[in-house]
Amino acid sequence: MKWIFSNTNPKLVLSIQAQYRISPIMASILAERGLLSTDETNSFFDPNLNLLHDPFLMKNMNQAVKRIINAIKRDESIMVFGDYDVDGTTAASILYIGLLNMGANVSTYIPNREKEGYGISDLGIDTAKKRKAKLIITCDCGTNDFDHVDYANASGIDVIITDHHTPGDNLPNAIAILNPKQKDCEYPFKELCGGGVAIKLLTGLIYALKLSFNLVYDLFDLAALGTSADLVPMIDENRIIVYHGLKVLRESDRPGLRELLKVAGVDINHTVSVGQVVFNVAPRINAAGRLGDANRSVQLLTTRDKAFAKEVALDLDNENKRRQLIQSQVVEEAMLKVNAEVDLKKDHAIVLGSHNWHAGVVGIAASKLKESFHRPTIIIGFDQEGNGKGSARSISKLNMYDALKKSSAQLVNYGGHPMAAGLSLHSNNFETFRSEFLSHVENQLTQKDFEPTIYLDSEIKLEEINTRFMTFLEKLSPFGPKNMRPKFGAFHLSVDGIPKIIGNGDHIRFKVKSGNKSFPVIGFNLAHKYEDLINKQPIDLAFVIEINRWRGQETIQLNARDIRPSNFA
After folding, report:
1. Phi, psi of 95 (to 5 degrees)
2. What residue spans of 342-458 are helical by DSSP H?
3. pLDDT tens digit string along 214-257?
4. What is the CATH number that goes with domain 342-447?
């Protein structure tokens, strides 16, 4: 793995160091995040609610608010239509609870991943008709659903779209489209997730109705879940939402969240982190949508019944365990197919499909293969009729959404972001799509783009890691894209004691020492580095620094990202 250290301007670092009387490493970290002025630094370390943008700056907000207020006044039935992932289900829960508290006649609907696929569905619209709904509000979907919006309109149902996915050149015929990524939308922050857009819509409503902001603030816990899980940039409004949302989460009496955190092993007596949300909570919410009925996730997040919440949380935990087994099988088979069918010297991307793969886990499989082979990956699961649903994951040098657009003639549907996208196609078109996609990617990437690389904030000596430094690091949270937990490199460390392989044989635990300072190290998926640790030679370590909490004790721990011999060239 190639190590690249931040190339921050030394004069800038010295200036920040003198201004705040902090260490060079701290100053370098602030400079890397563009925190150059006192105002920028203060707003970063104190994400004040006053820094949230006016919701009416978002295109079509006025139209959306007026239509919803009219629906409330007329007691019209409103159906909130969410996506089946964490962002979609939390956004749907946000709008459901918020509108209910405003006196709306509101229900929710989450489509079945396998039967209906992504976005608005005919079945969903038919359900809205049965419920006599006059208005559908989408969450985290709808921007490219032309035919379904037309079907809703023909059925006498208005549609308001709230979404954050990249729009195409044309837009559906909806009453209002709330999506900050619209080309002519002047909203200052473009990186909200679906839950973030839902929060802005509710904020617009409470402003118009002259209600208390607490109606919205109390829902920041759900917005924090969606924002963290969707891996949107942790800056600007997203940082404010998550910062406050994690506080609300700790204090929330929402029984569904309480029970979900419990089965996920998250102790709310301590600070809840974005990492815990992403790796412990989100998979359990997602499990329902991947393998079954994601409506259960919404029921869990919105219920006030403690017994029901406990029952559903346990169900989702069991569903997640089942998802893990299916996922392991798909990943294993996909790895074998890569070795058998993919020429990694020639092919600049991995595109695989199978009738044996569950569509609910192809996204996870695509992520695993992308990480293993360091190139764009598309994994597709086909049903018996040949209808395929796939997930695509990319590397930094390729915009996946644009790449799919180039091959869209072979696709039934597609959408997403530069680094992650979804698609559907028929098996009859698979080989043609694969060929066209690989041809496009070949023109965009070179072999150098596939070299695994880790970007490090700074070199650090173990002696520099102390309580004051840890306090500084924790103030940088919440962490996420564009504000990742700082990564460091330390050189010529001694391995202290005998390393232990742990878990299922994939992970490793050991200690490193330099001078009189030593720290425990955990290396997830780094057990293959065992031989580098037992030959009594010095090592270099790339890592993040974190607090490990175990049985009431707190210790500073280094979480390894890479290990190499110190003579590495």
Report:
1. -70, -40
2. 362-373, 400-406, 430-444
3. 999 999 999 999 999 998 999 999 999 999 999 999 888 899 99
4. 3.10.310.30
